[in-house]
């Protein structure tokens, strides 16, 4: 199996060495590089094209801007935020910028590995005990926005969205709805296309806004 290349961005030298050493111990990972600023993270990703970038939010430079640039200029590199900032606002801002993972420092090492495994398959990972709060934040944020036109979703698509807003994985959604995981992935792809979303988080955002517009149209 091809090794997964991982880069790290953090301005704490000890933590940076620790994370690199942790993944270097496993044969299926290769370390693409280590940097300590937002600008250096962009340069590293554009030159080395790692599969995964694990970055802190608290380091020199515009980290959120860097995440956005990486998402646009190197879409094959999946960004996981590994931070001590346990606020819904930080998570929402990072995910909106283009990150696909959000893990709190202080979590078990296994959770960081789980995040890498999850985003590698194209899904979004949010620290478990924090996921419900982030989804609630998405719902609150969506109440302040509107779409130009409502998009009609099928009953099944609405069921998928409902489960997604409860921070369930594709496997968990499949179990709840008693359908195959492959079918869930099919519907998720359809939802991304319909709602012009790049990932699961954006599907949740767009679906909520769409739902609000539908209710608004019905009341007029």
From TrEMBL:
Which InterPro entries does the record associate with it? CheY-like_superfamily (IPR011006), NreC/VraR/RcsB-like_REC (IPR058245), Sig_transdc_resp-reg_C-effctor (IPR016032), Sig_transdc_resp-reg_receiver (IPR001789), Tscrpt_reg_LuxR_C (IPR000792), WalR-like (IPR039420)
Keyword Phosphoprotein tagged: yes
Q: Which positions does the record annotate as the modified residue 4-aspartylphosphate?
A: 56
Keyword Repressor tagged? no
> Tell me, what's a Pfam family for it?
Response_reg
Every HTH luxR-type domain range: 146-211
Enumerate the SUPFAM superfamilies for this protein.
C-terminal effector domain of the bipartite response regulators, CheY-like
Q: Which species is listed as the source?
A: Devosia psychrophila
Q: Could you tell me the keywords of this UniProt record?
A: DNA-binding, Phosphoprotein
Cite the Response regulatory domain residue spans from the record. 5-120
Protein name as it appears in the record: Two component transcriptional regulator, LuxR family
């Amino acid at each position: 199996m091809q090794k997964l290349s991982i880069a790290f961005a953090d301005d704490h030298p000890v933590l940076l060495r620790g994370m690199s050493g942790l993944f270097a111990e496993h044969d299926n990972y290769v370390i693409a590089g280590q940097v300590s600023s937002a600008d250096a993270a962009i340069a590293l990703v554009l030159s080395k094209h790692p599969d995964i970038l694990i970055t802190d939010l608290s380091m020199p430079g515009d980290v959120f801007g860097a995440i956005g640039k990486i998402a646009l200029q190197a879409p094959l590199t999946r960004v996981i935020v590994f931070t001590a900032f346990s606020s819904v606002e930080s998570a929402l801002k990072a995910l909106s910028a283009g990150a696909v993972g959000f893990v709190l420092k202080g979590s078990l090492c296994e959770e960081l590995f789980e995040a890498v495994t999850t985003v590698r398959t194209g899904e979004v990972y949010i620290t478990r005990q924090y996921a419900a709060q982030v989804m609630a934040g998405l719902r609150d944020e969506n109440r302040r926005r509107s779409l130009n036109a409502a998009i009609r979703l099928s009953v099944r698509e609405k069921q998928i969205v409902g489960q997604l807003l409860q921070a369930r994985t594709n496997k968990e959604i499949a179990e709840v709805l008693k359908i195959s995981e492959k079918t869930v992935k099919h519907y998720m792809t359809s939802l991304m296309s319909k709602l012009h979303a790049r990932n699961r988080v954006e599907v949740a955002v767009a679906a909520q806004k769409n739902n609000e517009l539908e209710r608004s149209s019905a009341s007029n």
